[in-house]
Design a protein that fits this description.
The chain is mainly α. The protein folds into 2 domains: 62 residues, Arc Repressor Mutant, subunit A; 132 residues, Tetracycline Repressor, domain 2 (Orthogonal Bundle), CATH 1.10.357.10. Helix content is 76%, strand content 0%. The chain has 9 helices and no strands. Helix 2 packs across helix 3, helix 5 runs parallel beside helix 7 and helix 6 crosses helix 9. The longest helix has 28 residues. It comes from Streptomyces mutabilis. Keywords: DNA-binding, Transcription, Transcription regulation. This is TetR family transcriptional regulator. GO terms for molecular function: DNA-binding transcription factor activity; transcription cis-regulatory region binding.
C-alpha cells in the first residue's frame, strides 16, 4: 500500500522531457486543427495531425475542456515567447511587431472558438482571460516601445488598444469564409506606421 505522502510526491514530480515534448506536439496539433476546423473538431483529426492515437490524447487531456484550456494556455505562452524572439531576429522592430500580430491573429481566431466553449464556466474563463492579458500585454508593449523608439510607428498607441482592435477585427472570422480578418488586421498594423 502506498501512503499519501508518496502519492503526493509522485504528482508533484516534473514531467520528463519526452513527455513535455509529446504534450507540446499534441497542443500544437490541436491548435492547428482548431484554427482550420474549429474547437469542435473530432479528436481523431487532432490525433492524425499529431501522428498519435486518440488514446494518447485522452491520456494527456481526459476531457475536451482540458484540451481546450491546454491549447489556450499553450498558445498564450507561445505568443509571449515569440515577442522577444522576433525582436531579436527581425530586421526592424516594426517587422517584429507585424510578425507578432500575425501570430496573435492565429491565437485570436482559435480563442474566439475557445471562448464560446468555455462560456459555461464563466469564472474559469475570466481567470484565463486575466492570464491572457497578464502575459501578452507586456509583450505587445515591448514591441510597440521598440518600434516607437526606432521612429517606425506613432508613440500614442497602447498595447491594450492595439490588441483590442485586432481582437475586434477577428470576431466571427472563424465562421465566415467571406471575411478575411487577417487582411483587415494588416491594414490596421500598416496604419500605425509613421508617415513623416
Amino acid at each position: 500500500m502506498v501512503d499519501g505522502d508518496e502519492t503526493e510526491g509522485r504528482t508533484d514530480r516534473p514531467k520528463r522531457a519526452d513527455a513535455r515534448r509529446n504534450q507540446k506536439t499534441l497542443l500544437d496539433a490541436a491548435a492547428a486543427v482548431f484554427v482550420r476546423s474549429g474547437v469542435e473538431a473530432p479528436v481523431r483529426d487532432i490525433a492524425a495531425e499529431a501522428g498519435v492515437g486518440t488514446a494518447t490524447i485522452y491520456r494527456h487531456f481526459p476531457t475536451r475542456a482540458d484540451l481546450i484550456v491546454g491549447v489556450y494556455r499553450h498558445q498564450v505562452e507561445a505568443c509571449a515567447a515569440a515577442g522577444p524572439e522576433l525582436l531579436a531576429s527581425s530586421p526592424t522592430p516594426y517587422t517584429a511587431l507585424a510578425r507578432w500580430i500575425d501570430l496573435f491573429v492565429d491565437f485570436l481566431v482559435t480563442k474566439h472558438g475557445l471562448a464560446g466553449v468555455l462560456q459555461s464556466d464563466n469564472a474559469g474563463y475570466e481567470t484565463l482571460h486575466a492570464y491572457f492579458l497578464d502575459r501578452l500585454v507586456p509583450v505587445c508593449t515591448d514591441l510597440l516601445d521598440a518600434a516607437a523608439t526606432a521612429g517606425e510607428i506613432r508613440s500614442d498607441l497602447s498595447a491594450y488598444e492595439l490588441m483590442r482592435g485586432v481582437g475586434n477585427l477577428c470576431i466571427g472570422a472563424e465562421n465566415d469564409p467571406r471575411y478575411d480578418a487577417r487582411r483587415l488586421v494588416a491594414v490596421l498594423v500598416t496604419g500605425v506606421r509613421r508617415t513623416e
